[in-house]
Amino acid sequence: IEKIAVAWEPNKPLVIEEIEVAPPQANEIRIKMVATGVCHTDLYHLFEGMHEGGFPVVLGHEGAGIVESVVFAGKCRFCKNPKSNHCEKGWIADRQGEMSPAESRFTCKGKKLLQFVGTSTFSEYTVVNQMAVAKIDPAAPLDKVCLLGCGICTGFGAAVNVAQVEPGSTCAVFGLGAVGLAAVMGCHFAGAKKIIAVDINPEKFEMAKVFGATDFVNPKDRSKPISEVIAEMTNGGVDFSLECVGSVGVMRSALESCVKGWGVSVIVGWTDLCDFAARPIQLIAGRTWKGALFGGFKSRDGVPQMVQSYMDKKVKLDEFITHNMPLAQVNDAIELMKNGKWYIYILYVYIIEDLQTELYKDKH
Predict the structure, then answer these.
(1) Taking the CA atoms of the chain, what radius of gyration do you get in angstroms?
(2) Which residue segment(s) compose the domain that 351 sits in?
(3) pTM, to two decimals
């Protein structure tokens, strides 16, 4: 019997419940959670997503913990292909709308609880498929590196792995939440000489500087379309653009902000509610439009590499953190992120129970 935060239905507060967590089956791992971030994708599912069949569910999907028991499996054709970071066993393979796999090891009050994106880190314990776990340096602080379970790798990898930003290039990042700031950091890491940060909230710009942004544009302050503004700033458009909002309108603006001939635009922000569109000439003229899931990282290898980069002070994590909260305050965390009530508009909240904190200290 363990504590867990349950979303019984959409658009309602989560409820702390005591549940039964079944032991791991073939190819699964039981983990004692130490820390987890609250990501906007959790809010997307709770407040915006296609809700039919997606509840009750245990949210949370970027966490760090200690493995208690393991059963391992082989690799599928996607795992073996260097061009992809998908997996045939992943939640996105056949249940994209529900954002949860059909199987779950959680039950509460006689009902099966779905495991959000196959993880459910808003919990004291979780049981996940082995492909959702990466072994990291035991010296790494779990209450920091848990952020690498989603947002930071997603933004950083979109710039470095998917867009493949080049030294001396020009970039534009649309949206300065945690994913967008991580994309700015990735552009800077890759050696971009000009990084334009685009957001309708100017309070985010100071934090964007910390991660490497060189220029700032607030579309609300401009009378022209943002693509025209960026074209004037860059002699025709940027080499690389990254959309980190999850808005189909912003996706099109990001594409149109790229230079013709070789510009690359990457869709990073998560949404599955609307179709997106652009005029064919945008691509005929030589631009490339592509998408990124988890920044193109194969998590088993990529997450340990990112952890090491953090330990070597090559990438930032501490700067993303705005609040630390216990599991019992998960609804406060969600409201803070939903309403953006602090100046950098990021909420990565660590959900750490006293027992877990002591366990973390004992292990390190």
Answers:
(1) 20
(2) 2-133+316-359
(3) 0.87
